[in-house]
Amino acid sequence: MRLFSRGITDPLEPFVKQGPKMSIRVRLTISFTALFGAIVIALAVAAYVLLSSDAYRRLDAALQVATGATEMSAEHELNEHSTKSAGEKDLQSVLDEAGTAALSDTQILVREGDRIVAYRPAVHFGSDLRTVPPQILRTGIVNGFRIVSDSFRAPKFNAVYRVYSARPTAPVLARVEQIHCSLFCRSARTRSCRTGRISACKKVFAAATGTCENGRQGHILRSQHPSEGQR
User: Fold this and answer.
1) Pair (140, 190) in one structural domain
2) Are residues 94 and 140 in the same domain?
3) How does pLDDT run across 138-162, given as a tens digit for each residue?
4) Cα-Cα-Cα-Cα dihedral sign, residues 76, 79, 85, 86
């Protein structure tokens, strides 16, 4: 009753520690800082998604070109010969001679049902498409390879062929990891995230190209682990 007689409407008010009130300028500064941070994070996430999608689109586009070119060559060779075996033999010769730099990491496989018609290996590859069962071999990612396939008909021999083109996904994954490091691991407050992501980037990129220590990642690693001469 004494509390209310002194003009205190809340009986808990004397026991609650009242902090200093923030001015309007401080409140506006905090609000705009939070808004700016949210915008930066949203832009970083959007850039990551777009750049990652673009990396896979480029890979798919290259595989579609390889598949389409193989189909055109196969149709031409099969229509030129009177027997199917002769046309398929010439198709294999065409694939053997297609040793361009653009196709150095691309495997090309041509099947008629379960039968292997022609095959072109990549310069560096870990999995042979010929060893993958036809029911598993499909468009998508199989055994670390991005695969694009398409079928065409040879009316002259009443046969249906399917062309598969495949490239390893390790270089694309390394590129995506580098994008992640660049966008999300720059702040000093996320040092543990940065070192962990760069270490993961090194492992992925090394699997694809044999090295990952270049550019900004290599500079950061050298600064964190100085050589004996620098010590």
Assistant:
1) no
2) yes
3) 778 888 889 999 999 999 999 999 9
4) negative
Task: Report how far residue 116's alpha carbon sits from residue 121's, in angstroms, rounded to the nearest whole number.
Answer: 13
- The answer to whether residues 127 and 193 belong to one domain is no
Counting the structural domains of the chain, the total is 2
Q: What is the pLDDT of residue 7?
A: 52
Question: Is residue 161 within 8 Å of residue 119, measured between CB atoms?
Answer: no
Q: Note whether 87 and 128 are same-domain residues.
A: yes
Do 77 and 124 lie in one domain? The reply is yes
Residues 160 and 75 both lie in one domain: yes
pLDDT of 97: 84
Same domain, 87 and 189: no
Host domain of residue 76: 53-168
Q: What is the CA radius of gyration of the chain?
A: 30
